[in-house]
Amino acid sequence: MKQVYIFFTFVFLLHIINILSPSDRLQYVLGLLALLMLVLSFRYASNLFKVLGFGFSVVGFIFFFTADLRIAEVIPMLANNLSLLTLLAVLPWMNSVVTAGRFDILMQNLLRGNVKDLGSLYQRSTTAMMSLTAFLNVSSATIAQQVLVDNLKPVQRKVANRFIMMTTLRGYSLALLWSPLEVLLAMSIFITGVNYGELLPWMVVITIFMYLVDSIWGKYYFGKVEYPAEHKVELKSENNRNRSKIIQLITALISFLAIVILLGNLLDMEFIFIVTISVFPFAALWAFLIKRWKSFWVIGWNRWRSSVNNMHNFIVLFVTLAFFTGNLNESPALLMLQDPILFVADYPVLLLIMIQLLFMVMSMFGVHPVATMGILGGISSMLVDILSPLSLAIILVTAGVSTVPIGTYGLVVTIISMNLKQSPYLITYYNLIYSIVFGTVGILVAYWMI
């Protein structure tokens, strides 16, 4: 399966062609190719995603037999989520330019700063995580966790572990709300059809509020723990280099956001597609401007090939999810779901709370928030009758992201759990109140926008 990336890339390129020049025949072919991708990937997917994929397939078949559908009508549905898979396929190029530019080292330097106590380090760690996660995604949590484990060796182990469990996951979650490279954000826009430029200000407001609240709490909670003296060395030249790197990173981030918003206003195309076609040219230009062209290509090629070769989990999830939602929308079962929604139609705040609770409960049982969002996407037409598209987009993003620090079997939680040799349920426990506050803020803002 080392060369499977060639086939997957071929399918993604066909999908891009189909977006630029829509064709029913090509959509049918893409459906067949998506089915083949599912067959190839199922064997190599993790057990969790196999269970999810199998569950969506079984329920999808039940909906199929209750709907007036032919198999020929179902095949094209399987390609409905290829946009999300294509976006995931290009993301390693952005990650690679950050690595080639040595911005990952910037995070290490920031986490070894001249601070007096763990309260100040908490604020610095959260800021560094939030800034670099926008480009590095999961890699940022791995880097931060490794640096902090080394730096906090003189600190009591229980305190150090608690610090790492909190700051890495919370800082990581704060970047997911507004980063155009985040799948949860892209998927919520895909479901609701809202404009990214319209959604972004509210995501920034929520991010700033949660950052301030968590930073104040972290300063108070860890402020009494002294930071090890041997790590309080910062050279002036190193400070200057860090400052220069931070300016470059901020400039790149603002530029990419501006490009996505501008293209979104100029082109009548989906947000996911705009981000997808922007990632590689932007990353290549960035690498050229910072004179890291060769290393960008070497790192980028290896990471991209490895990433596409190992997309099996998401292929199983998104293809079966497309089958599930496609059949649900044509099934009489959709009418059965109207009753509980109509029951709370006069109390939209209850519907917002139900959505938030659904994400939280499902995440604790190992269901990826993308899968939960996909389920809700199947009934989005009913939800927007009560909530505005913007309100629905806000609650989908905040509810999904708020579960990241408490997703017992989530990727980042699992990585930290394994490296610290701590129970994932303990990580969930330490971050539960944060996630509840996070979700509550999302509910209030979404209710305000109805």
Automatic annotation (TrEMBL):
<feature type="transmembrane region" description="Helical">
    <location>
        <begin position="199"/>
        <end position="217"/>
    </location>
</feature>
<feature type="transmembrane region" description="Helical">
    <location>
        <begin position="169"/>
        <end position="193"/>
    </location>
</feature>
<feature type="transmembrane region" description="Helical">
    <location>
        <begin position="311"/>
        <end position="328"/>
    </location>
</feature>
<keyword id="KW-0812">Transmembrane</keyword>
<feature type="transmembrane region" description="Helical">
    <location>
        <begin position="51"/>
        <end position="72"/>
    </location>
</feature>
<feature type="transmembrane region" description="Helical">
    <location>
        <begin position="340"/>
        <end position="359"/>
    </location>
</feature>
<feature type="transmembrane region" description="Helical">
    <location>
        <begin position="127"/>
        <end position="148"/>
    </location>
</feature>
<feature type="transmembrane region" description="Helical">
    <location>
        <begin position="28"/>
        <end position="45"/>
    </location>
</feature>
<feature type="transmembrane region" description="Helical">
    <location>
        <begin position="390"/>
        <end position="416"/>
    </location>
</feature>
<feature type="transmembrane region" description="Helical">
    <location>
        <begin position="6"/>
        <end position="21"/>
    </location>
</feature>
<feature type="transmembrane region" description="Helical">
    <location>
        <begin position="84"/>
        <end position="107"/>
    </location>
</feature>
<keyword id="KW-0472">Membrane</keyword>
<feature type="transmembrane region" description="Helical">
    <location>
        <begin position="246"/>
        <end position="265"/>
    </location>
</feature>
<feature type="transmembrane region" description="Helical">
    <location>
        <begin position="366"/>
        <end position="384"/>
    </location>
</feature>
<keyword id="KW-1133">Transmembrane helix</keyword>
<protein>
    <submittedName>
        <fullName>Uncharacterized protein</fullName>
    </submittedName>
</protein>
<feature type="transmembrane region" description="Helical">
    <location>
        <begin position="428"/>
        <end position="449"/>
    </location>
</feature>
<feature type="transmembrane region" description="Helical">
    <location>
        <begin position="271"/>
        <end position="290"/>
    </location>
</feature>
